[in-house]
Amino acid sequence: MLLGLAVLGVLVVGAVVSTVLSFDTPGPASVDDAVDRFREDGGDDGPDRPGGRPPEGVYLYEGTGEAALSFPPLTQQDGAELPATVTHQPRGCWTTRVEFNAEHWQEWTYCRVGDGMVETRGRSGQAWDLGVSSAGNVSTFLCRPPNPVLMPDAEPGDEVQQSCSGTNSAVDGRTTSRGPSTFVGEEMLVVDGTEVTALHLSNERVLTGGQEGDERTDTWFRADGLLVRYERDIEVRTASPVGAITYTEAGYFELTDLHPQT
Questions:
Q1: How many CB atoms lie within 10 A of CB 233?
Q2: DSSP state letter for 222
Q3: 160 burial type by CB count under 10 A (0-12 exposed, 13-18 middle, 19+ buried)
Q4: In the chain, where the domains are located
Q5: Were 14 and a residue from 39, 72, 145, 161 both cysteine, which residue would form a disulfide, CB within 3.0 to 4.6 Å?
């Protein structure tokens, strides 16, 4: 799975700030704001394709996580409650957007192809407070051809290669994220007292180009593509005038309610 590379070149701005007065850390993302955005933006009412897609709305997750910069030394915490919005797109596709906190979000676009499910695009955004200024960036990655995610008749241990390439608004050049995705198997997870059959994937990516690093993610999907659980461990290095800046991100979140707010 593509996890957005919400890093960092713009943060060399911090290198020219001789005295940082204070750093504000972002608070949790607002569930009410997520619901309001969903109601304003709407989605696509086109027909589903075989395999279906998750019902639209704002789902609630809980978990823990942290993002950190090596320079300037900054950290952000995930909120205890994370809203995630599912919005239907044309041609049997949908977007899942998770808000880790008020300044950090990640989204994936999936589509149905035959009885399978593929990933076509990933985006992320993040902003950092630098005391006397702030810095933010958005990354956009396209997967061409689309990455296979859920494949019909997959057996435990089956592996497919995934690759996406894109840009970061704060970093020169393109970055490619490439590596294997392994189907671990079906697992039973409990969501608010209800057992859910989840399809577990383990994914490893190597990042090359404008940014370099490694990311390891584990994802659990319901058969219709609803994200039930997500774990991540990421390290990305970006060159800067003051040397390499390292961004790390680790944590997990899991679904707490099968019924979205709409």
A1: 15
A2: -
A3: middle
A4: 9-255
A5: 72
Q: What residues contact 250, with CB distance under 8 A and at least 6 apart?
A: 65, 66, 232, 233, 234
Q: CA 56 to CA 247: how far, in whole Å?
A: 32
Encoding tokens for residue 24? 């504000």
pLDDT tens digit string along 156-203? Answer: 999 999 999 999 998 889 999 999 999 999 999 999 999 999 999 999
pLDDT tens across 10-29, in order?
343 333 333 333 456 899 99
Q: Indicate the pTM of the whole model.
A: 0.90
Sign of CA dihedral 235, 237, 243, 245: negative
Where on the phi/psi map is residue 131: left (φ > 0), alpha (ψ -120 to 50), or beta?
Answer: left
N- to C-terminal Cα separation, the chain: 27
